[in-house]
Amino acid sequence: TLFTGGHVTQAEFYHEGELVGVLTTQPLDRVLDYKAPEGGCRAGAFVEVPLGPRKVLGVVWGPGKGDYDRSKIRSVIRVLDVAPMREEMQIFLTKAGDYTLTPMSAMLRLATRAPGLSDPPSMQKVYRLGGAEPDRMTDARTRVLEVLRDYGGLAFTLSELAETAGVTTSVVKGLVKLGAVLEEDRPRDTPFQRLDPDYGGKELTEDQAEAAGVLRASVRSGSYGTTLLRGVTGSGKTEVYLEAVAECLRAGRQALVLLPEIALTAEFLTRVEARFGAKPAEWHSGVTMTERRRIWKMVGEGGAQMVIGARSALFLPFQNLGLIVVDEEHDTSYKQEDGVLYNARDMAVLRASICGARVVLASATPSLESWTNAEAGKYDKLTLTSRYGEAVLPEMRAIDMRGEQLPSDRWISGALQREVNARVEKGEQALLFINRRGYAPITICRACGHQIGCDHCDARMVEHRFLKRLVCHQCGETKPMPETCPSCGVEGRLAPVGPGVERLAEEATALFPEARVVTLSSDMFGSARALKAQIKAIADGGADIIIGTQLVAKGHNFPLLTLVGVIDADLGLQGSDLRAAERTFQLMRQVAGRAGRSERKGLALLQTYQPEHPVIRAILAGDEEGFWQAEADERRHASVPPFGRMAGIVLSSTDVQEVFDLGNDMARRDGPLRQIGAQVFGPAPAPIARIRGRHRVRLLVKADKGAPLQAALARWLAQFRPGPQTRISVDIDPQTF
Ligand code: ADP
Ligand code: ZN
Fold it and tell me: Which residues bind Zn(2+) 2 (predicted)?
């Protein structure tokens, strides 16, 4: 059952011995009664409580229920030395849990993702760059110094530094003795440097100044509201929303900026520093443990004014959040696809509406959801119409591949080849885009026709020459390329079919022997740091031709880039995904937007076998409104999101019979759903029918826009007792349907 906790007023204080209800991070899904400890505790306090033989972390959620034998109730062990959870956070977690049908314990885990929360404050030894150069440099020493330089002024703990540099701690200690690295004592958790809202603002264009003025006023209003900030890539959306951040800082409130991709943060941090004179806090999976603990505490105490982060930053304990910016709001990576299934964009709106903050959704190609909300007047609209400065939107043209007589292992058309050559000669850059990682998507045996698949998933293994392995993109399993066919045993007949980014790079290297070709694909970099370095090198002119996957479509600024060639514009249009058109439209426009971001004019060429396809035509015509209107009509007609409500229920088990039996049973006993007029479709094999050896079956539930879907789902699901091997996961507003 779900816990719908309601909420408590934070003024509530419980004296020693009074009953309090504590929500823990353990999967129990009810609030447990405890006695308040010596000295009492406040509602919202983070506490340690006994649970069986263990001590666990929890939050005082409200008064105890008292429906349990009082003599057996144990006491809270201690109150932790961190700011209590604010009431608005309790409400946010409760509502978000209700919306996504997630147990409260799992929601609380999202909100306590800081290591060492229960440790007492203390001093620690940290290491930073010293002045001295050692006489004798070894590879290991060089790596340590490089890491410290790369991370600017950041201090590391001993183990973090050794681990990041890939050396033993004695190497670091040796450098300390030589004065090349400094060892200092620092309190664990220190505030971030103050940001100055008036430090380095740019002079805005008329268009930008107007938009910034509207946003500033909305931030000053101090109440909830969402603005969809549209504008082509390079129009200055970032400059404009940084003005909203400035206003938020002036008002003494905190600002959160969500970015869809960690690789973008480095470039962004530099910009923020130039604007506000100091670096903000940075929260994502690449941040060290010590730093995370510090951020978590400082956000809660007001010692961090601004956070740049991944979607999980929404669950930080902000003391006084005034603004949330969701940059590239349409990006699919905002949808968590593992664990708690939530869309960070929607959760940002929810969180802001609870704490009276403003939301800015920025995008050149908004999601259909946000576009619809703006059309309906639920969101304010602001649009920047032109690119900043001399930069103009690239010209877009299709290359009709039906006329090209390319051999089966080549993908760069003659027309594209000529344009690339022209750029390279002028010292400009060309980007060849293909949204496929690895060398070749298929490995086939030329003797028997067998295609190498994953042993655990219903997926093909993808050859990655860079990693010298076959990789399953579903479960991550890898294996070496076999010499002989696993099916017929014939040797030497396994061959790659189709292009991946690595194979395209091979073709480009052969076609353009004079050019410097670099490949940008997420799996080719050992660390976020290496990737950052590569991106910077490209921006500084260290490459002529960039071969890239989706990674390059997002927000990077390459001033010398004037040509984008999309190798296969049709790729996203295949398959049965209803959102395929929207995705392709967004992706193609984002990619094309990479070209000509400075004063040089850009050209985008789309290789396609179906130039008359409506989506391709809308992209070429740059007819955004027309595209959204047509797409909205189609979805309205099918009453699918955002014009109807949907949930995907995925059942998975190692036992294929068990999942189908359960699925059929669920489809039959659909009373609670029928009560609200909802329909169930399926069970059918899920889009990926087997992952990591687990069979997956999906049911889709469709309801009208206003229907109380979650409540009905909860009642429906409560009827079933899945077997021990079976897992049920509920995905409200699934990405694919
Ligand atoms: P978007 O976020 O819409 O893609 P950006 O804010 O990143 O656009 O702006 C694109 C480029 O133009 C950036 O390098 C930015 O610094 C520059 N730029 C935009 N507006 C101005 C301005 N008013 N003055 C100076 N530079 C600007
Ligand atoms: Zn697999």
Answer: 454, 457, 472, 475
How would you class 139 by CB atoms within 10 Å of its CB: exposed for 0-12, middle for 13-18, buried for 19 or more?
Answer: exposed
- Distance between CA atoms of 483 and 470, rounded to whole angstroms? 12
Q: What's the pLDDT tens digit per position in 496-534?
A: 998 999 999 999 999 999 999 998 877 766 666 777 778
Full-model pTM: 0.81
The C-alpha torsion from 224 through 228 and 229 to 233, rounded to 10°, is: 140
Residues 6+ apart with CB under 8 A from 667: 680, 682, 683, 699
Question: Separation of 690 CA from ligand 2 center, angstroms?
Answer: 8
Judge if the beta carbon of residue 590 lies within 6 A of ligand 1: no
Cα 582 to its chain centre, rounded Å, is 19
CB 691 within 8 A of CB 618: no
Strands 225-231 and 561-566: unpaired
Helices (H), 463-579: 501-511, 528-539
Over residues 647-676, the pLDDT tens digits come to 999 999 998 888 889 999 999 999 999 999
The CB of 94 under 6 Å from ligand 1? The reply is no
Q: Is the CB of 593 under 6 A from ligand 1?
A: no
Contact 240, 208 (CB under 8 A): yes
Q: Are 406 and 413 in contact (CB under 8 A)?
A: yes
Residue length of the chain: 737
